[in-house]
Amino acid sequence: MTVSTTAGVVAGSPLGLAAEPSPRDLSRDLGEPAWLTDDRMAALALAHELPVESNPLFTSYVDLRPVRFGELAAYQRAGEAATVSAAVPEGASALLEVRDDVVVARGLSPQAAGAGVIVDTFERVLRRDPALLRRLLEGGATLPADDRFAQATRAGFSLGVLVHVPDGVALEGPIVIRWAQGAPGRAHLTRTVVSLGRDAHAALLEEQVASAGDRDGAPQSLWAGTTEVVLEPGSTLDVAGQEDFGLNTVSLVTRHATVSESASLRWALAVVGGGFVKSRIDNVLEGRGGSVHQAEIAFAGGDQRFDLTSYTRHRGQDTTGDLLSKGVFQGSSRGFFKGLIDIERSAKGTDSFLGEFSMLLAKKARSVAIPSLEIDQPDVRRASHSSSVGPVDEGQIFYLMSRGIPRDVARKFIVLGFLEPVVARIPLPAAQDRLRDLLDRKWIPGPA
């Protein structure tokens, strides 16, 4: 497959947007301290030096031609609605909601507020606890240094969100961060930093949905966002993500996690919407006994393009990684699943697995799976990967049909069951039901 790694990126700006304020001007207008301005400028310099894809294993599988960067203008600053709702969804610990470039909701449950939990914008945190934000952000350690899009977002973000759970706090309900995006011709660059103290426990639900501006035939919209996770020793975090942007929206997503000693991270991520989605997840297992369990699903149709990459970097001893990616592709959609397990010399006793599996439901649908290993430590418990790309198993269809189930219904059962492991990990029952409904509506009846 021949693809382009340069189309759509214009010289002079890391993203090549039609209108994009300089990071220095943006920082000044936001009233940020000098250290954050310097951090933005360091990221800008790095972004200009980096290629679109830095891993030679994956350079042949990046295609940015569907993205019209030069027609997009970046937001310069996020505002606030005239009335910002403080209501929190039933069963949740907190909510922060942004529609295009406006904060419309911000609230904490009584338990979260009493425990000193922070769910707020960088701008407000800088007035309340600037030392905490500086400790987390300065130097860029919470983002991959070899990713151009991550560094461009670090340089040019107009809105940042901090989630901080103090030492020893165990939240009963999930923290909900909701992004609604889709204003034609606009680009929103955002950062979300999630910090859990020692022995803290929390769940986070990220929802990405279409805003009112997204409509058929409208110019593209861009959402470039990061989720940067820092887990202190003994902490545990469950992150569930649902992406259901409109088909005119381009999504560039970077998720990066640093996992300390005996800390545990679980990702459950679903990609359904968006005309073009490029996602990268980096899990860095620094401390002894740290673990990450990741399940990611994608369901594409029409002309959608999904480019999903995962890295698991084992540095501490006795760390565990278990990554599973599954995709379903209809119509003329395309999907790339790319992954790397990296076991460094210091990572004795590693146990790591990477699986990438795709179902093709139409003759014009295409998918590529590229799992890989780099091992510099022979003393490991397990280091393995597996992948497959193909149609629905005819043997499974025959079995269900022999029980009186019509062929198309049998295919649907098999496909939705293939994706169910991620759906079951979503922390709010209402969000689970919404995702199941999205997957059900995505289904196109008919023979393969």
Walk me through the structure.
The protein is of the alpha/beta class and 448 residues long. It has one domain (72-442). Helix content is 21%, strand content 40%. It contains nine helices and 21 strands. It has helices at residues 23-29, 34-49, 110-114, 122-128, 130-137, 148-156, 394-402, 407-423, 429-442, and strands at 73-74, 79-85, 94-99, 102-108, 118-121, 159-165, 175-181, 186-196, 201-210, 221-231, 236-244, 249-259, 264-271, 276-285, 291-300, 305-314, 320-329, 334-343, 351-360, 366-375, 382-390. It has an eleven-stranded mixed sheet. Strands 1, 5, 6, 8, 10, 12, 14, 16, 18 and 20 form a ten-stranded mixed sheet that branches. Helix 2 (34-49) runs antiparallel to helix 6 and helix 4 crosses helix 5 (130-137). The longest helix has 17 residues, at 407-423. The chain is globular, with a radius of gyration of 21 Å. The protein starts with 22 loop residues before the first helix and ends in a 6-residue tail after the last helix.
